[in-house]
Structure formats: structure tokens, C-alpha cells
Amino acid sequence: MKPIRIGFIGVGYIAINAHLPGLAPLVEAGQAELRAFCDVDEKNLAEQAATYGVSATYTDYYQMFEKEDLDAVYVCIPPTLHTDQITIAAEKGIAVLVEKPQTLDIGQAVRFDEAIRKGGIVSQVGFQSRYCPSAEKVVDLLQSRTPRHALVQALSSGKPVRYWTSRYELCGGSFVENTIHMVDLLRYFLGDIETVSAFYVARAPDEGPEPMNMPHVYNVNYLFVGGTTANFTLSRVLTNTPTSRRSVQIISDDSLIEWSADRVVENDEVMWKDEVGCHPSFAQTRAFIEAVKAGDPGLVKSSYANALNSLAAVLGANASAERGGQCLALDDLIAGRVVGPPV
Hints:
Number of domains: 2
CATH architecture of the largest domain: 2-Layer Sandwich
Radius of gyration: 20 Å
Shape: globular
Number of strands: 15
CATH class of the largest domain: Alpha Beta
């Protein structure tokens, strides 16, 4: 079978650190071909093209779509830069892997989902935590448990990493840009989210390092369709210390499951431990390429349609916080019934 011909729109941080290394073994094995790169940073574009032996480079994705014969495209750009890339790919029958957060506009995400459905293409959103073997172990355990509650805590550095991920208006805040991974993982464990209520602690203009302008603290409550509740706490105030914490706990009747990428603990007993070093982003890449080869959208764990609830959950948290903690139904958000300024 011919290799899957791949184009990239955006060859920055996430492409360099996750997707391109994940594709490298498949390229070497002849299963995939890096056909074209597109990026507005011409220096970085040239460097990555040279590193991966890509001769076709573009600064305009319209030209790439017009000139290249692609089977799949990776869309690895900030959420505010999403315009019509996914729509064009869907119309051309090109599979898409889209980095999270997919967009900051839920209405736009709904339109992209409709285009993907109409085009019948394979789609994947970059939620690689679903591909951790530890995640599968939790799924297996929960088959014989009755989940009641979940707690997620992320106490993180307040230092900026990249400009766009430090600005609320560009990334939607840390809960949208980063914690969406944990929101999606809980959905993998517990099903879809129905309702959200959130309170944020604002950052004063002179607090914290520049160019950060996002909330200090995010407190978010969820009700899942099945009746389980979850509490998320995220803070970005540990700026000048190496200390940080992250925990994911699921509480069932007589069961406390603690998840991390390298182990699963239940009631203080290690139920699974990574002995070989798992690479969930690599597993995600293989699943996407296999789905494209088979033409089967069902072979991925986080299609664009599936990931819509995760995006609504984090954008809904922002909307609730802006409305003083008002409970919001995600179906109302997706349907466009949560509109206008906060009341």
C-alpha cells in the first residue's frame, strides 16, 4: 500500500515536540510520507523542512491545498487562527488531525464538525492521554465500579511558556489551553458532561510575570450525563518555585482510583505500572494513520465529533465564570443559546 501523504499547517512547538517525532518511525517504515509543510515563520519552516527532508514548503495553506495531493493534514496552529483549514480539507476528502483547543468559538467548532461529517473524513483531536495504557486500565476497572465523584488538581507554574498560551484572549486561559486534556480524559472514563459551573480568581494587571494576563485560579464543577460529579482546581501561582502537583482521582463505592500516566493505584494498591515507557502521542499517531489507511473514522479515540463535548466543557467553564458561576448546560452552549455578554 502507498504511504499516507501528509501535510502540516503549523510546524511549531507541538509539531516539533510530539507529532513529527511520532510520525518519524512510520515514515521510515514507508507507511507515511511527509509531503508538505506550511508555516508563516519562514526560518522555522526551512529548519523543519530540512530536518525532515520535506521539499514542498508554503507560507500560504491555500497554495498547499491547491498544489499538493494529500491524504491527511495536521492542523497545529493556535485556536484563534482557525478559519477554513478544516473545511477545505473536508471538502477535498483529506483526513485531519487537529491540535487542541480546536477553537475558542464553539459555533465555529460546530460548523467544522458538520463539514467533517459531510466529507466523511477521518478526524482526530490531539487528546493523547486517551492513548496511555494507564487510561485503559482505569476504563477496565470502572467496568465493575460505580463512579460517584472525581477530583482533578493541577497546581502549576505561573511562568509563561509561549506568548499565545500566556494571553487569555488568544488561548482562552489555562483551563481551556491545557486542562482540557484532563477534562477529556475524565470524559473517556465517565462519559459526556452535561452541566458546568465555575469560579475564577482574577489576576490584577500588575500581578505575575508578563505577558501573562490570565486568572490565577480556576475552580470548575461538572455534572456528567450519568450523574457523576467532578471538581477541577487549577492554579498558576507557583511562579518562582520548582514545586508543582497534578492528581486525578475517581471515587466509587469502596474504591479510590488514582490515575497518572505511568501508574494506576486503587485503595493504595498499585494496579498497573509502566515498566517500558509508554509514548501516548506515538500511539495516537499510529491510530490516526491506521484510520486513514483503512478509511475508518471509528478507529480513533477522539474524533472531532467526540471532542466537541470536551471543548464545550472548557469554554462553558469560561462562560460560567464570566457569569458569576451560573450553571450552564453544554447542550445550550453548543446550540448557541448561551450568547451575548454575561448577565
